[in-house]
Design goal:
Layout (H helix, E strand, L loop, with lengths): L1 E3 L3 E3 L2 H7 L5 E5 L4 E5 L4 H26 L20 H7 L7 E5 L6 E5 L11 H9 L4 H10 L6
């Protein structure tokens, strides 16, 4: 497979035949993946597809776990901000901050003033949906380390 800028993604007929997708395919685009599957499936074909996707998911969970390490009451996860900072759009507009910008807060040393400003990173733990946080936690992944990796934005795979 290759991505040709002028022609789009090219998938060989051999790959489609090997996958047993039949005559019609469905292309499902998500935030970070494209899934190509049969447009029509029997119950067993659906089960095999689910099994294949679960195997891919387990592989990605293993990569995440390897990079984050296991959490065994490490203390690194206790003070995580799972909700992030949210201000009304009007307040952001007055401050000249684009709507949707990730925010950070810090308190001055005298404790009398709190500053809220745009974060210098794109993602943190507050961007992870609760059902995935639960999955990661159940898998034993250290959420504190995950937060640090999200803030750094470094490549973990590939």
């Amino acid at each position: 497979m290759k991505n040709n800028q002028n022609k789009g993604l090219i998938i060989s007929n051999e790959a489609i035949i090997k996958a047993g997708l039949g005559d019609e395919i469905a292309v499902i685009g998500t935030d970070s993946a494209i899934v190509i599957a049969g447009a029509k499936m029997t119950a067993m074909e659906l089960i095999k597809t689910i099994d294949s996707l679960a195997e891919i998911t387990q592989g990605y969970l293993a990569i995440l776990s390897k990079n984050c390490g296991e959490c065994d009451d490490c203390g690194h996860c206790e003070d995580l901000d799972f909700e992030g900072i949210h201000l009304p759009d009007g307040v952001l507009e007055i401050a000249g901050i684009p709507v949707g910008t990730k925010l950070n807060a810090f308190i001055e040393e005298d404790g009398e003033m709190i500053h809220i400003e745009p974060a210098e990173y794109e993602h943190d733990i507050s961007d992870i949906p609760p059902h995935l946080l639960s999955l990661f936690s159940n898998y034993g992944i250290c959420l504190g380390e995950l937060d640090a990796l999200l803030v750094k934005g470094e490549l973990l795979h590939g």
